[in-house]
């Protein structure tokens, strides 16, 4: 095995290593920790006048936003939504028109029994502006 530029000899049969590997078999990696959650607002649909709901952006790429809601809303995969990323220096530029790609209940240890819902939103380019 190589770590950095140094070669490291690993005895995969070492009982201590085998015990450690057994202990880590069921671990799940939580990728949300790499993106600092940011406040945002979400509204159902793209039209003005609909109510905004406070949410958290927990992950983002150019076209994808993962949103954490602390309440359940009547929405489905494929629904159109507006996301306000709360950019104080350019409020209009912070509105993203998107479609719900996926949704599920939270799965962290502290999520069961709470109304935590995660939404994957795909930005719609050339949508209403």
Short description:
The chain is 8% helix and 37% strand. With 129 residues, the chain is mostly beta strands.
What is the topological layout?
Blueprint: E1 2-3, E2 6-7, H1 15-24, E3 38-44, E4 53-60, E5 64-69, E6 80-84, E7 95-105, E8 117-123
Antiparallel strand pairs: 1-2, 3-4, 3-6, 4-5, 5-8, 6-7, 7-8
Question: In words, what does this structure look like?
Answer:
With 129 residues, the chain is mostly beta strands. The protein is 8% helix and 37% strand. The mean pLDDT is 79.
List the keywords.
mainly beta; about 130 residues; 6-stranded antiparallel β-barrel; elongated; 8 strands; single chain; about 10% helix
Q: Give the SSE order as H and E letters.
A: EEHEEEEEE
Largest beta sheet, briefly? Answer: 6 strands, antiparallel, barrel
Helix tally equals 1
What is the general shape?
Answer: elongated
Secondary structure category: mainly beta
Share of β-strand residues: 35-45%
Indicate the mean pLDDT. 79
Please give the order of strands in the largest beta sheet: 3-4-5-8-7-6
Q: Which range best describes the helical content: under 10%, 10-25%, 25-40%, 40-55%, 55-70% or over 70%?
A: under 10%
The quaternary organization reads as single chain
Distance between the termini: 52 Å
**Rg over CA atoms:** 20 Å
Report low-confidence residues grouped into runs of 5 or more: none
Number of strands: 8
């Amino acid at each position: 095995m190589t770590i950095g530029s140094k070669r490291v000899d690993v005895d995969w049969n070492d009982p201590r290593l085998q015990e450690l590997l057994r202990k880590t078999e069921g671990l799940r990696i939580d990728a949300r920790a790499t993106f600092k959650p940011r406040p945002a607002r979400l509204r159902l649909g793209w039209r003005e006048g609909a109510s905004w709901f406070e949410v958290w952006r927990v992950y983002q790429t150019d076209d994808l936003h993962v949103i954490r809601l602390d309440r359940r809303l009547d929405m489905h995969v494929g629904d159109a939504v507006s996301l306000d990323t709360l950019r104080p220096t350019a409020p209009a530029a912070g509105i993203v028109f998107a479609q719900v790609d996926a949704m599920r209940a939270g799965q962290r240890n502290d999520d069961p029994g709470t109304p935590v819902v995660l939404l994957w939103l795909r930005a719609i380019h050339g949508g209403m502006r």
